[in-house]
From TrEMBL:
Belongs to the TmoD/XamoD family. This is MmoB/DmpM family protein. One of its GO terms (molecular function) is monooxygenase activity. It comes from the Bacteria.
């Protein structure tokens, strides 16, 4: 069995509103790879990506509901293993 963690990823639509979301994801996941493409931000990490509501709210300067995440993402690779009012975690379950 390999100890290598599989990559997970989130593609987010590039927009002024989503810059705070991307900054928050970077803050909570310092080992990320972030690539900016025309109109798209591709975020990848080994193992998992965690999105904390409090961090997003701090970056946006307003309240943020985790349900707004659906408006920002274009696609993702992995499973949404946790999604509640405070946190979203994307990782592979198997």
């Amino acid at each position: 069995m390999s100890d290598t963690l599989r990559q997970v990823g989130i593609d987010i639509q590039e927009s002024e509103e989503n810059r705070g979301l991307v900054a928050a994801i970077r803050a909570d996941n310092p080992e990320l790879t972030v690539r900016h493409l025309p109109g798209l931000v591709k975020i990848q990490a080994a193992g998992q990506i965690v999105i904390n509501r409090e961090t997003v709210e701090r970056e946006l300067g307003r309240e943020w509901e985790t349900g707004e995440f659906q408006l920002a993402i274009v696609s993702f690779a992995g499973n949404l293993s946790e999604w509640d009012d405070d946190q979203i975690i994307v990782k592979w379950e198997h």
